[in-house]
């Protein structure tokens, strides 16, 4: 039936795709994707011959209109991205938004997502977390962003590129302090998967010790801010000072 199916694909390990995802990719009229060559590899691995169609980010709005027309004409379309869940730091927002406006059914399949995979193994609180996508590339914008998140109590989750990891960790030490716990999850579901958890200053030192420690695909997580004894409110500190002065 006419519908847009949101289909997550593996984030490294080709086996991480659901039975339902494979059936959907097999049955739809065509597959809208980021990079047709990239998606072709996945499809050929599973011997799926459904045609693909590129939904580029820079003209997504225009391409979305074309897809909506075809959906309204009764076609079933699957949306995939290069890896993981579409729309999570990936294209698809305009398309889903247009489908909702046009009254077209949008059916999301659950599946791999690097942020959730990383978070579930990090050992940081997961009851509340904030996904922040990629940090800004420019130093000033990155510092401003981290400054605005400094007192955030929820666990923070960032996507990071290997080229920028060191700069980001350096900025984190500067803004959130040497003691703030960081977790770097690298190459999840792949052969050289690793997860490291250290206080910010030690993490910086550890990463600087070997370039290989920053290679590949990375999720960077930051423990939420926890007010501790050193950060009592000004009023409480003043009272404490007065009390101390009175003690023998
Ligand atoms: N839509 C994807 C998802 O659901 O996770 C994310 C796409 S985003 C363009 C790509 C970023 O996701 C990478 O730069 C990296 O930060 C993260 N990522 C993707 N695969 C990963 C993996 N296997 N291990 C660690 N991080 C990964």
Automatic annotation (TrEMBL):
Residues 40-248 form the ATP-grasp domain. It comes from the Bacteria. The keyword Nucleotide-binding applies. Keywords: ATP-binding, Cytoplasm, Methyltransferase, Nucleotide-binding, rRNA processing, S-adenosyl-L-methionine, Transferase. Coiled coil: none annotated. Its main location: cytoplasm. Catalyzes the 2'-O-methylation of the ribose of cytidine 1402 (C1402) in 16S rRNA. This is Ribosomal RNA small subunit methyltransferase I. The gene is rsmI.
């Amino acid at each position: 039936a006419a519908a847009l199916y949101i289909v997550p694909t593996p984030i490294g390990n080709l086996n991480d795709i659901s039975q339902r995802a494979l059936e959907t990719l097999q049955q739809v009229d065509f597959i809208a994707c980021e990079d047709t060559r990239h998606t072709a590899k996945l499809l050929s691995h599973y011997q799926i011959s459904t045609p693909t169609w590129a939904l580029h980010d820079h003209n997504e709005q225009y391409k979305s209109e074309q897809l909506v027309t075809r959906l309204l004409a009764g076609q079933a379309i699957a949306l995939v991205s290069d890896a993981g869940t579409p729309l999570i730091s990936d294209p698809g927002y305009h398309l889903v938004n247009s489908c909702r406006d046009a009254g077209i059914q949008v059916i999301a399949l659950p599946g791999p997502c690097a942020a959730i995979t990383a978070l579930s193994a990090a050992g940081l609180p997961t009851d509340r977390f904030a996904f922040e996508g990629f940090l800004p590339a420019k130093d000033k914008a990155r510092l401003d962003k981290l400054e605005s998140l400094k007192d955030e109590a929820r666990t923070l989750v960032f996507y990071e590129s290997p080229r920028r990891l060191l700069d980001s960790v350096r900025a984190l030490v500067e803004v959130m302090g040497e003691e703030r716990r960081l977790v770097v999850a690298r190459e999840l579901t792949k052969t050289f998967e690793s997860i490291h958890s250290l206080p910010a200053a030690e993490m910086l030192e550890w990463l600087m010790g070997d370039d290989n420690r920053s290679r590949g695909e990375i999720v960077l997580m930051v423990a939420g801010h926890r007010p501790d004894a050193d950060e009592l409110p000004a009023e409480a500190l003043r009272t404490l000072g007065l009390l101390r002065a009175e003690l023998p």
